[in-house]
Specification:
Layout (H helix, E strand, L loop, with lengths): L14 H13 L5 E2 L11 H12 L12 H15 L8 E4 L3 H11 L5 E5 L4 H9 L3 E5 L1 E4 L2 E4 L1 H7 L4 E6 L12 H13 L3 E5 L24 E6 L12 E4 L2 H14 L5 H12 L4 H21 L14 E2 L4 H6 L5 H12 L1 E2 L1 E2 L15 E4 L5 H16 L1
Parallel strand pairs: 1-12, 3-4, 3-7, 7-8, 8-9
Antiparallel strand pairs: 2-10, 5-6, 9-10, 11-14, 13-14
Helix pairs in contact: 2-9, 3-9, 4-5, 4-8, 10-13
Length: 397
């Protein structure tokens, strides 16, 4: 017997492969400094946990509406509207078991086999995986280095659009490179979408994970709300990664499609977990700035120490919890040409475990610079200092 051939098009979240390598090295008695996985080692706030436990005690353990419980949809509609200066109703909100399902359900809702979808590369690897799994043509667009980080190559995006192009996936406050669009870049991308009548998936997972400034959504630009699906997740802001709770904020026709897919895929998002989500949005949020301050301290020491290493350069992101250092010169200094070898040697010589650019989509043919990604969400400040000190000595040796 054989399996379905479409499985050959299904990728994976490759950061988990790095986790396995780190776990294997740790099992052999070695100390690991985990910069590889974008999970949080900060616990979910007590009031959120208590709200979920109360829901269980109150018997909220059965099925619930496929689109989500009314209380959570109402809370999300109000919160997302206020933070983006837009107007959404409950009819625009469809609760999901995490943010990730929004990607696949968006693609299933708007893309036919053979359609083209543009996506960021490097970028979250599930974009590429889901486009190809459902029979689409995944067309990557690049970022180019700038004085402050990275900019979208808008000229390349223009060149990629053809008669079969259906949508653009856009991840402002980007994973892995931390890029944030300027107002001008966001406006230019919006005009491309409007001119070419394209859907947009705006992955806003890190919208409120800011150290300074204020986030803006591409949906706020005139002409964009009616063609944009916002990916919302509780995982980051509320340290709820394992709860698997998120939502699609979408035009009604897409929202209805996604709700129908919910019915087919999982019936509903876990009933009692949604009450934790209600408390997260409407209850005490004093833990959020505390968490942001902890992450900022981690970011600042990591950026400082990385930029002191010979041959390494990294910019300071204003949101999220990822650093994307350029290690091109460091690799040359160590006579290395392959990122996989660089990462493995770093793990075995220092215990520092990280992802590389190779874990975030297939590299484009003209790429010359070498990058790695370090997540500072799951590693304490003292471990950052200890691990990067060892890495610095290894880089300099």
């Amino acid at each position: 017997m054989t399996l379905a051939t479409r499985l050959n098009n299904l990728g994976t979240e490759t950061a988990f492969a790095v986790s396995l390598a780190a776990a294997d090295w740790s099992a052999k008695g070695n100390k690991i400094y985990p910069f590889h996985l974008g999970d949080l080692n900060i616990p979910t706030a007590k009031n959120i946990v208590e709200a979920m436990n109360k829901a269980i005690a109150d018997g909220k353990t059965g099925y619930c509406p496929a689109a989500g419980i009314p209380q959570l949809r109402e809370a999300l509609a109000k919160d997302v509207s206020e933070r983006r200066n837009l107007k959404f109703g409950v009819e625009n909100v469809v609760v999901q078991p995490g943010g990730k399902p929004v990607i696949s359900k968006f693609i299933q809702s708007i893309m036919n086999p053979g359609d083209e979808v543009l996506y960021p590369n490097p970028g979250y690897p599930i974009y590429e995986s889901q486009i190809e799994y459902f029979g689409g043509i995944a067309k990557p667009y690049r970022y180019v280095p700038s004085q402050t980080g990275f900019n979208i190559d808008l000229e390349q995006i223009q060149s990629l659009i053809g008669p079969k192009t259906k949508a653009i996936i856009y991840n402002d406050l980007q994973n892995p490179n931390g890029a944030e669009s300027t107002d001008e870049e966001r406006e230019a991308l919006a005009q491309i979408a409007i001119k070419n009548n394209l859907w947009v998936l705006s992955d806003e997972a890190y919208f409120e994970m800011r150290f300074s400034g204020k986030s803006k959504s591409i949906a706020q630009i005139p002409g964009m709300q009616e063609r944009t699906v916002i990916l919302y997740t509780f995982s980051k802001k509320f340290a709820m990664t394992g709860w698997r709770l998120g939502a699609a904020i979408a035009p009604v026709e897409i929202a209805n499609s996604i709700a129908k897919l919910n019915t087919n895929d999982e019936s509903c998002t876990t009933h009692f977990v949604q009450y934790g989500g209600v408390e997260a949005i409407t209850g005490d949020q004093s833990h959020v700035p505390v968490m942001i301050n902890v992450l900022k301290e981690r970011r600042d020491i990591a950026v400082l120490m990385l930029n002191q290493m010979p041959g390494i350069k990294v910019h300071t992101p204003e949101a999220g919890f990822y650093l994307f250092p350029d290690v091109t010169e460091a690799m040359k200094n160590k006579s290395m040409t392959e990122l996989a070898d660089f990462a493995q040697d770093a793990l075995h010589k220092t215990g520092v475990s990280f992802c590389t650019r190779l874990h975030f989509g297939r590299p484009q043919a003209d790429e010359q610079r070498k990058y790695i990604r370090l997540a500072f969400s799951g590693i304490n400040k003292d471990q950052i200092e200890e691990g990067l000190a060892l890495m610095g000595k290894w880089i300099a040796s």
